[in-house]
Specification:
Layout: H1 27-64, H2 70-85
Length: about 90
C-alpha cells in the first residue's frame, strides 16, 4: 500500500561501535592530555586579552589624537612649497 512507512536505509546504525580516542588512552595519558590542553587554553586566553587591550588602546589613541588645525595645515603646505622651490 502507498500509506505504509518505508525504512530509511541511510538512518541505519553502523555495525562498528564508536569509540573516542580518549577511551583508548590510559589514565596517565588522559591526565597529560588535559594538562597540555589547559595550558593551551590559558595561553589562548592571555593572547586574546592582550589583543583586546591593544585594540582598545588603539581606539582610545585614535579618538584622542587631535586633528591639525587649518592654520597648521596651511603652514605645513607653505613649508613644503618653499622646500620644492628652493
Amino acid at each position: 500500500m502507498c500509506g505504509t512507512p518505508k525504512t530509511n536505509m541511510s538512518a541505519t546504525i553502523s555495525k562498528t561501535p564508536f569509540r573516542s580516542f580518549m577511551a583508548t588512552m590510559s589514565l596517565a595519558q588522559r591526565k597529560r592530555f588535559a594538562e597540555v590542553a589547559n595550558r593551551a587554553a590559558d595561553r589562548r586566553e592571555i593572547r586574546e586579552n592582550y589583543q583586546r587591550q591593544i585594540t582598545e588602546k588603539d581606539k582610545l589613541n585614535s579618538q584622542h589624537r587631535a586633528k591639525p588645525s587649518l592654520l597648521a595645515k596651511l603652514k605645513s603646505w607653505c613649508d613644503q612649497t618653499v622646500k620644492l622651490m628652493g
